[in-house]
Specification:
The structure is a single chain. The protein contains nine helices and no strands. The chain is an all-alpha fold. It starts with a helix and ends with a helix. The model has no long low-confidence stretch (mean pLDDT 92).
Length: 170
Amino acid sequence: DVLREFAKGLATMLPDVGGVAYVKHLLDPLVMLCGLEDVSVRDEAVKSLSIIGSTIYGAGGNANVQKDFMKLLDGLVASESPLSRSSAAGLLCVPYPHVPVGTKTQLRQSFQTLCADEEIAVRRSAVVALGEKFAKVLDSHCADVVGSFETLCRDLSDGVRLQCVQSAAE
């Protein structure tokens, strides 16, 4: 419970660390929390990173800070830990509406990578993120992700397939 509250509290501390220019001091602990076993802590860390990311990309934020957030996402997607990769699925949609076309392509490719991950939990998180978040921000390139979704609908895991039904309904 302490780590969950810590993750939740970090989302509100941006003004306390000196603003967007010093956001790195909040990102590092949240990335660590994204890799923990406790799903409630990971979920809260993802929520906090989403809030911070929206602030970074909202109001025409600092380009260097935005690059740091993209590096954070790349690190989570490429992590050896399936828990971190699972957390990444819910974060790829945060910068998507605010980045140039080339970066959008990279974000979609990262999402497709997570959809094809060897770990069931990562694929399931990708399906959840698609239904709850990513589908809402995709533009005319949503066809890029449809193939991954169709593959997930035929996944060997019942949990992934069932989540596809729920995500399609959302």
